[in-house]
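not sure who needs this but someone in the group chat was asking about Sulfide-quinone reductase from Rhodospirillum centenum so here u go. i didnt clean anything up, its just raw.
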Amino acid sequence: MAEIVVLGAGLGGTLAAFEILPTLRKEDRLTVIGQGRTFHFVPSNPWIAVGWRDRQDIEVDLDNVMARRRIRFVSTGAERLHPAENRIDLTDGSSLGYDYLVIATGPELAFDEVPGLGPDGFTHSICHIDHAVKAKEAFDRFLAKPGPIIVGAAQGASCFGPAYEFALILDTELRRRRIRDQVPMTFVTAEPYIGHLGLDGVGDTKSLLESELRNRHIKWITNARILGVEAGSMSVEELTDDGQIRRTHALPFAYSMILPAFRGVAALRGAEGLVNPRGFVVVDAYQRNPTFPNVFAVGVCVAIAPTGPTPVPVGVPKTGFMIESMVTATAENLRCLLRGRPAHSQATWNAVCLADFGDGGVAFVAQPQIPPRNVNWSSKGRWVHWAKIGFERYFMNKIRVGRKQPFYEKLLLDQLNIRLIKSRPDVVAAPVGQD
Ligand SMILES: Cc1cc2nc3c(=O)[nH]c(=O)nc-3n(C[C@H](O)[C@H](O)[C@H](O)COP(=O)(O)OP(=O)(O)OC[C@H]3O[C@@H](n4cnc5c(N)ncnc54)[C@H](O)[C@@H]3O)c2cc1C
């Protein structure tokens, strides 16, 4: 008998539990450790922050979902992982042992690395559903008294797509409300150029996103290091390509959303042999930690080296379909190890991303992630908006129904989605949340 534990019940952890379950032998036991009882679909947070989705649209009660599958679910959260002892301390003082562990703890949001950054400071965030709900409340207050907006991603950030997405969603929403003319917008990013995305660009993302920002009168500052934020003012250092200070900006704002740098969660940080200095889990080609080969990791908690040096540090994004491929490889490798065979399955680690702007969007595929690539494709159009709705339904359905959705089903769902929207053109013109 083997005890298999999945630590973290977000996108990666929940999918991992569902994919691992059918690979187990009768005598094995699967436990999922979450932090709270609710799953929420992070990629829909930008829609929450402008009221295009309500909280309940993207939340799932995990107690129910796990119980239906007879997966043991512990919602107390982990205090500390002891990989050398195959043991996890939980926050209620108890302890859980394992034979195999899959870490899927996502990121810790490093707001504290920039004074005044984050929902406890002066900027908003869409990284967690609680933050997105708070950002929506602030957006409602902003609508009564519009002013300048700053959106972007801080130094060390690795998740740039949602920053572009949010800037362009805000632009769409403000135009729909006919108050865009009262709102100067600035995009502030650690990226060396617009459309770098932590991937040194994909296809023509530089031109596509520059042109999108230009067309919508959104100014930008790249190579940006945010020095600090105070009420209504952001201090930003703009660097040259060789890392010198080109200019310091004092940017006024009435509303701001800045994505922070990520690091590994506290329960893992400093675990020798397991994590890198930022607390991300080091894995080999089979998603296994080289020091503790009974420990796997999937999702944002995995350490991936940056594509190359940049004047301001930027990380590499980990996106939904990439996470899914890590999960599939992990489940297959566990199946083999449990039956005395070696691990052989490798994740594709391809970056596939859909950035929705409400009335259009940009999509890209990078295969492999690091250039030069075999597939280096980007495109834009209204279809991306529909595809993003399909993406949300695909994953939400997977979590709710708890099974791998066959590709034909996904295709059918997307087609239905498109047909629904075509038959109701008002849906495209209206907020997505009303579809
Ligand atoms: C705003 C935003 C928008 C995004 N949009 C897209 C998109 O459109 N398309 C795309 O492909 N990707 C997108 N991503 C990237 C990625 O798909 C998501 O971040 C995804 O949620 C990552 O999954 P994960 O499982 O690694 O982390 P998470 O979903 O964050 O899950 C981690 C889980 O671990 C739990 N946890 C942490 N510490 C502990 C502990 N000590 N004990 C127990 N549990 C713990 C957390 O509570 C959380 O539930 C987006 C990311 C962000 C931040």
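also The pocket of flavin-adenine dinucleotide is lined by residues 7-13, 33-35, 42-43, 45, 77-78, 104-106, 126-127, 159, 162, 265, 267, 299-301, 319-320, 323, 353-354 (CB under 6 Å). if thats useful
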